[in-house]
Amino acid sequence: MTRGEQVFAAVCLVATVVPVAVVLLLICATVLVGLPALVAAMAGGVPELSTSALSSAVVGTLGLLVLTAAIALPLGIGAAIYLELEPYGGRAESSARLRRWSQRCLDYLDAIPSVLYGLVMLELLVRMLWAGRSLAIAALTMALVILPRVVLGAREALRAVPTSLREAALALGSSPWEVVRGVLLPMALPNILTRSVGSLSRAVSAAAPLVVLGGVVFVGVAPAQADGLTVLPVQIFAWLHDLQAGFSVDAAASVVVLLVTLLVLNGAVLALRGRLRVQL
Amino acid sequence: MAGPHRDTWIERLLGACASVPVVTTIAIVTVLGMQTLGFFLQSRPADFGQQYLLPLLSGTLLVTAIAAVLAVPLGILSAIYLSELAPRSVARVLRPALELLGAVPTVVYGYFALVLLTPWLQTLLPELPELNVLSAGLMVGLLVTPLISTRAQHALRSVPAQLREASHALGGSHMGTLLRVVLPTARRSIAAAVVHGLSRALGETMIVAIAAGRDPRLALDLTSPAQPLTGYLVETGAAAPTPGGLTYGSVFAVGATLFALTFAAHLLARWLTKPGAAP
Questions:
Q1: Looking at the complex, does the CB of residue B239 fall below 8 Å from at least one CB of chain A?
Q2: Per-residue pLDDT tens for B2-11?
Q3: What is the pLDDT of residues B129-154, one digit of tens each?
Q4: d(CA B134, CA A19)
Q5: Cβ of A113 and B252 within 8 Å?
Q6: CB-based contact (8 Å) between B262 and chain A?
């Protein structure tokens, strides 16, 4: 390599390392502020933290996670199966059209900022006045936000199952659904779950649609008074919005909690995946 | 053996799942469209344009431009490094590390911008206000870098091996092949990666809502606060405007603009990746 090329290679290396280093640095700085406060609060000392708001936010986040998964996973996997399998025969043409449009819409929806989902749900909500079912509406919104990714992940997982297995099952006389139930799903499930975690992480960390929804549904974006439902990202936003009121330590602590939650979530699924690996 | 009736039922159920995205898209377009129409019947488009749309667009432009200055070079150069130049062991560590940057929640980036980056920047630029477009833009750039990098890596890896081998056969060095064959061939796909990343940047909401500014201001100054389209949505939406009112409608009009912009970017990226004249 010429001298110029060596410099270029070095620049490329720097370009890769610098963003990672910077973010790691920022995370460390945050942990340095947030972790001591968290530990002090848990050890029962005088809390500088709004622990009630923080714990209700954690509960809300977990609830949102479970509900969103309950909505998004069946929908996404169902859609992926439909999109991935060959036409069943019979009404092949209409189903082909549905497949085409469904995939197109999934591509468009993936490119839309998540705020807009919150906006649209807000309007539909106001029309239907479901003010009491706040967590369900939030879960539905987030499920729609992550649906394109869930479908994508599930389709890739389904595609990874060797076609020979599928064809063997069909040759032995199984109906298409039996092939799915008996062969495809069991083999693809670990993969589907691993890929879905990324989307579920996104559901739990995206605040924007919920803040927009929050004007009507949640009890205010103002620092929660332990009543009302909220989730970690929204709570962090609320505290940062009012930074003058001195919530920066709370914000740091909840950032730590959020990051830890995500780590645990991703780690747990990776561990589960090892167990779910079907012996072939 | 399963009967044909049972299978049809299941097929219908799965088809219902597959129609959810279609229904969602229709709902989004309809709601945005109708609310925007209603809003423009209540207020004059020219007023709205001048008072809100133009300042908000300038905010979006500023944030996206700052993010681009950071993310485009870092994204492309890191893609080159990770897919062409890095030893395999190094790449195995750095590639997921870079991807993790995109997995950090955006509220956390907002925290970084407001609480960590801005004070540090203020030591360099003492007149920097607490809410400013520079911090937010830089954080958005960090967020978007892995997006561009991942797609660009994919673009580079998609360059057919025959082209590389032909270049080597004709005596080209590794670096020379990279610069003269691989990169030019992957040009369009890399451009699509950049478009995709910038589209994400202009749709980014929480970072700018936290750190960039609270009011629509028409300004092209890096060190002042500014509010982009997305920031307006969050700020105004969080304040719970009364449904049917003017403010409520304006939120949808801004949302519709955002939708149009990201949709256009999406179409552009798709056009770039069409197997047209060049791969």
A1: yes
A2: 455 556 777 7
A3: 888 899 999 999 999 999 999 999 99
A4: 17
A5: no
A6: yes
